[in-house]
UniProtKB/TrEMBL annotation:
GO terms for molecular function: DNA binding. Residues 2-62 form the HTH tetR-type domain. This is TetR/AcrR family transcriptional regulator. InterPro entries: Homeodomain-like_sf, HTH_TetR, Tet_transcr_reg_TetR-rel_C_sf, TetR_C. It comes from the Bacteria. Gene3D superfamilies: Tetracycline Repressor, domain 2. Residues 25-44 bind DNA. PROSITE patterns: HTH_TETR_2. Keywords: DNA-binding, Transcription, Transcription regulation. It comes from Phycicoccus flavus.
Length: 189
């Protein structure tokens, strides 16, 4: 990745996470990068381009972590538990303000805006990974399990953003673990 692009995305990630996408103007972003305004605008001609790239980069990073957790696991149940453990750890990270995809997407009305489109694509990609893994666990109940896990994860992020890591979001992750165990036990029969 080009050094300027990396620097702008690094600063944008910090600022967008701390303050939200709309609250951060390009002038502030340029100032905090230490780059010339024209250098930033050559890399990202518009703020919408920057928001889309920020979320795309974040999606790649998160999905890579999910893929690694799934690949390292001995069983499909272990893989799903590892993903859920990653969610639980993320909910407790310092400065947690909710799902960055949901937060950014909520700031734009246009369903075709890069933020909303990238949020949809990310959620679909995560659901696809949960679905493939859950179907390996149980070909009959896997799809239903994956959809339930996705709903619980989304709920955990939203709840934790408002009520903290010891609120209902933690219970949602615990419930997701219990669902995995129940389907695994049923599949063993």
């Amino acid at each position: 990745m080009d050094e300027r692009r990396r620097r702008v995305l690094e600063v944008a990630t910090r600022l967008f996470t701390e303050h939200g996408v709309h609250a951060v103007g390009m002038d502030r972003l340029v100032e905090e990068t230490g780059l010339a305004k024209m250098s930033v605008y050559r890399v990202f001609p518009t703020k919408d381009d920057l928001v889309g790239a920020y979320l795309q980069e974040l999606a790649v990073q998160i999905l890579d972590l999910v893929d690694r957790d799934i690949a390292r696991a001995a069983t499909p149940a272990d893989a799903l538990h590892a993903v859920l453990d990653g969610v639980a750890a993320d909910l407790r990270r310092p400065g947690f303000r909710g799902c960055p995809f949901g937060n950014a997407a909520a700031e734009f009305d246009d369903p075709d805006h890069a933020a909303r489109r990238t949020a949809r694509e990310y959620r679909q990609a995560l659901l696809d990974r949960l679905d493939a893994t859950a179907r390996r666990l149980d070909p009959v109940e896997g799809r239903r399990l994956a959809r339930r896990l996705a709903a619980l994860v989304d709920g955990a992020y939203l709840s934790t953003a408002h009520l903290g890591p010891d609120g209902p979001g933690a219970e949602a992750v615990d419930l997701a673990h219990e669902l995995v165990d129940a389907v695994a036990a049923s599949a063993r029969g």
